[in-house]
């Protein structure tokens, strides 16, 4: 664990400089984006339960993401308004 701020060779703070790759997909969507997403979710779930297809999103990954969000919330609590 490094507690010192990350600095460049000039001593100024160094920030994340990751390059994000964006992908665009185009096509026809019947109904709203919400309807399409819900239909896709249930098709994938059906394929898993009935046909034994692999899950698109693994429970282990969701558990890992929830753990990260919980740690963030612990370290950066929101003010209570009640």
Topology:
Layout (H helix, E strand, L loop, with lengths): L32 H19 L7 H17 L7
Description:
Helix content is 44%, strand content 0%. The chain has two helices and no strands. The longest helix is centred in the middle third of the chain and has 19 residues, at 33-51. The mean pLDDT is 85.
- Classify the beta-strand content into a percent band: under 5%
Helix/strand-derived category reads: mainly alpha
Elements, N to C (H/E): HH
Round the Cα radius of gyration to an integer and report it.
21 Å
Low-pLDDT parts are none
Which outline best applies?
extended
Distance between the termini: 36 Å
User: Which bin fits the share of residues in helices?
Assistant: 40-55%
The number of strands is 0
Mean pLDDT over all positions: 85
Query: Tell me about the biggest sheet?
Result: none
Number of helices: 2
Keywords:
single chain, 82 residues, mainly alpha
Gist of the model:
By secondary structure, this protein is mostly helical. It has two helices and no strands.
């Amino acid at each position: 664990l490094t507690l010192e701020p990350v600095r460049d060779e000039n001593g100024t703070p160094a920030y994340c400089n990751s390059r994000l790759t964006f992908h665009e997909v185009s096509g026809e969507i019947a109904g709203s984006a919400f309807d399409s997403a819900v239909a896709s979710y249930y098709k994938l779930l059906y394929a898993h339960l009935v046909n034994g297809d692999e899950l698109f999103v693994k429970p282990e990954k969701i558990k890992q993401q929830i753990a990260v969000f919980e740690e963030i919330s612990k370290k950066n609590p929101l003010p209570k308004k009640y």
